[in-house]
Amino acid sequence: MEILTKYFADFTPTQLQQLQALEGLYKEWNEKINVISRKDIDSLYLKHVLHSLSIAAIFDFQPGMQVIDIGAGGGFPSVPLAIFFPEVQFHAVDSINKKLTVIQEVAAGAGIPNITTQHTRAEQITNRKFDVAVSRAVAPLKDLLSWSKHLLNKPSEVRKHFGAQATEDMEIPAGLICLKGGDLAQEIHDSGRKPFIWPINEIFPEEFFNEKFILQVK
Ligand SMILES: C[S@@+](CC[C@H](N)C(=O)[O-])C[C@H]1O[C@@H](n2cnc3c(N)ncnc32)[C@H](O)[C@@H]1O
């Protein structure tokens, strides 16, 4: 937990309670349904929660925004982001249903009301649009872009959530925002797009974040 308050000073008492509850809930549910490697569970707050919240260090999601987490697994990055942005609605989808049970149980146990789940492949959703798609460790950029294309509102639509305060320099959270690691040159080349890239170790200098990046394609 200290690793979170080191970087984010303004959690409300409710957020602190929710964040604290994650440890016990993920330990309990990860025993039943493996969503986090067993060796990583002791570093839950660094490797999963803070990693997910790197998105919140860059992007200020606005109340009323709708965000889809593609391939959410056990809820990363959507569960920490739902705690961070209680007025934003998160929709976690995964093609493996039992992983979504972990999200449902964690959300119920920690009292996180603003996250829903759906058992589906992202590319099969046809009846809904979102302001932003987030994703961690799911598929090459090219695939994420093709799966999310039909799901996303236009950046001009997303801008409306920012009202008069939106300026050209603001990091508007629109399009696909994904967490990726390693050498991304080939993957970016294959995508045919030029993502904005933020090295996470410039935000959080912990060694774990070396070679980890936030990518955004609007
Ligand atoms: C390596 S796990 C990552 C889970 C989570 N995002 C995390 O970082 O802990 C990748 C997940 O993506 C899901 N997945 C892969 N392709 C998908 C698709 N087309 N639509 C929805 N989920 C998908 C898999 O079922 C798996 O749970």
Automatic annotation (TrEMBL):
<keyword id="KW-0808">Transferase</keyword>
<comment type="similarity">
    <text>Belongs to the methyltransferase superfamily. RNA methyltransferase RsmG family.</text>
</comment>
<protein>
    <recommendedName>
        <fullName>Ribosomal RNA small subunit methyltransferase G</fullName>
        <ecNumber>2.1.1.-</ecNumber>
    </recommendedName>
</protein>
<feature type="binding site">
    <location>
        <begin position="122"/>
        <end position="123"/>
    </location>
    <ligand>
        <name>S-adenosyl-L-methionine</name>
    </ligand>
</feature>
<dbReference type="Pfam" id="PF02527">
    <property type="entry name" value="GidB"/>
</dbReference>
<feature type="binding site">
    <location>
        <position position="71"/>
    </location>
    <ligand>
        <name>S-adenosyl-L-methionine</name>
    </ligand>
</feature>
<dbReference type="GO" id="GO:0070043">
    <property type="term" value="F:rRNA (guanine-N7-)-methyltransferase activity"/>
</dbReference>
<comment type="function">
    <text>Specifically methylates the N7 position of a guanine in 16S rRNA.</text>
</comment>
<feature type="binding site">
    <location>
        <position position="76"/>
    </location>
    <ligand>
        <name>S-adenosyl-L-methionine</name>
    </ligand>
</feature>
<dbReference type="GO" id="GO:0005829">
    <property type="term" value="C:cytosol"/>
</dbReference>
<dbReference type="InterPro" id="IPR003682">
    <property type="entry name" value="rRNA_ssu_MeTfrase_G"/>
</dbReference>
<feature type="binding site">
    <location>
        <position position="136"/>
    </location>
    <ligand>
        <name>S-adenosyl-L-methionine</name>
    </ligand>
</feature>
<keyword id="KW-0963">Cytoplasm</keyword>
<keyword id="KW-0698">rRNA processing</keyword>
<keyword id="KW-0489">Methyltransferase</keyword>
<dbReference type="InterPro" id="IPR029063">
    <property type="entry name" value="SAM-dependent_MTases_sf"/>
</dbReference>
<keyword id="KW-0949">S-adenosyl-L-methionine</keyword>
